[in-house]
Amino acid sequence: MDPIIKAVDVQYCTLQCPDLNVQEQFLIHFGMHTVEKTDNMLLMRGEGPQPFIEKCIKGEKKFLSASFLAASMDDLHKLSESESFSEVEELTTPGGGFVTRAMDPDGIGVEVVYGIENRPDYNEVAPYPTNEGTNVNRVNQIKRYPKGSYPKIIRFAHYGINSNNISAALEWYNNHLGIIPSDKLWFGDSGDSNTPLMGCFARLDRGLTPADHHSIFWLDANNQSEGIAGLNHVSFEMLNIDDVFMGHEILQQKKDEFDYELEWGVGRHYQGSQIFDYWRSPFKQTHEHQTDGDLLDNTISCNDINMIENTGGMPGDDPGPSQWGPPINLGTFGDKRGI
Ligand SMILES: [Fe+2]
């Protein structure tokens, strides 16, 4: 079955948080800027063109939804005519635009948006060119970051969900939004129908236009969070590698005073290859800084990885820990404290 539409990007995430002042302070330290704050809603932006990249609603801690971008208004209407999605509504947040909403099989909200205008005060922020060995891009230009400067976030990049049925979730996102798998993590031989699927990284199908290795990442809720489906983490793309490390330094300095928690980082992932750094907010909702991830077009097929044998078909394709960086604490990564 052809998907109803093929989403072309992700736009923002929506979290529910008990105290918006605490959340705002965390996100400022994390590298965002306040766009709008009322008693019930907080909107935060990065340095990119999107008017906001994280929306927070006051209430009991919960992951409410992620927003995907449709290619056209027609696509929004096509989705809204399907059984799962709501009528198209006008958005009242900065940048305007339109939305249709659904719940995925895990009860996680999905918004698909179109027509949100870029923020009027956007000025393109370009990273410094990088000199790497014989790949010389910066001559007669000094690289300087003011000491203590906050890390620069470009965009909301992807999110992780602890799922009660990864295959059902992938099928739903494929049918509605054209999402395709990049890597599947199997607890054993993927050729054996009894082998449990422990995780899946999935991306947008943009044809021959490259897409991030993953826009969604599912892990097994039974394994991670005692069978409770919900947030594993939200992830934001940084301007460059320096911003990941500057963010790490600032959050390390603030963590005792503001109750932040380093979950895992800095390191470089296997699946997706990003340089990553995961931090828990005071509400334990994990936020990731990442940069330099893999981009794949739709000609690359899914890679089945046997997590027991650690063979993904490529040398060094270990699905667990990082290519470099501190070890993961498998007992706490994405546990139910952040749901
Ligand atoms: Fe991530």
List keywords for this structure.
about 350 residues; 5 helices; alpha+beta; binds fe (ii) ion; globular; 9-stranded mixed beta sheet; 8-stranded mixed beta sheet; about 15% helix; 2,3-Dihydroxybiphenyl 1,2-Dioxygenase, domain 1
SSE layout and pairing:
Layout: E1 9-17, H1 20-30, E2 33-37, E3 41-45, E4 54-58, E5 62-69, H2 73-80, E6 89-90, E7 98-103, E8 109-114, E9 153-163, H3 166-177, E10 180-186, E11 197-203, E12 211-212, E13 216-220, H4 221-224, E14 230-238, H5 241-258, E15 261-268, E16 275-280, E17 286-291, E18 295-296, E19 303-306
Parallel strand pairs: 1-4, 5-8, 9-13, 10-19, 14-17
Antiparallel strand pairs: 1-5, 2-3, 3-4, 6-7, 7-8, 9-14, 10-11, 11-13, 12-18, 15-16, 16-17
The chain binds fe (ii) ion.
Fe (ii) ion binds next to β9 and β14.
Task: Report the CATH architecture.
Answer: Roll
- The CATH class assignment is Alpha Beta
- Strand arrangement, largest sheet? 15-16-17-14-9-13-11-10-19
Stretches with pLDDT under 50, minimum 5 residues:
none
Bound heterogens, unique: fe (ii) ion
Percent helix: 10-25%
Mean pLDDT: 95
Instruction: Give the count of helical stretches.
Output: 5
Q: Structural class, from helix and strand content?
A: alpha+beta
Shape: globular
